[in-house]
Amino acid sequence: MADYDYYNIEPQLQELDPNILRIDFDYRTEKHRIMCWDPYLKEEYIAMTVPWKDLDSRVVTHMRRINPTKFNAFDELEQNMILREIEQEKKIEEMAHSMADMLYKPLLKDAYC
Fold it and tell me: Structure pTM?
């Protein structure tokens, strides 16, 4: 485990990209270095440096954004369509409730007058 990795970022990054080896801490610059392995050149390199206070979920989010190997556009579209359908169903339900109230209130008024 890396020094000052309080949120277990290293295993999360390794899930995203198996080429990520480890997170080193450089005491001189007070920054974390995310070390990766290049399978073609067969050498390590620094993929990213992160200030020591900022090693949290933002790093994982950033790596997801810049490393879209597991990103599937169809999954993203499907999730958006599902959310849109849920919103439409809520609107229809609200319209049905307001219409039912509009029709029911005059009947109540006539019944008790």
Answer: 0.55
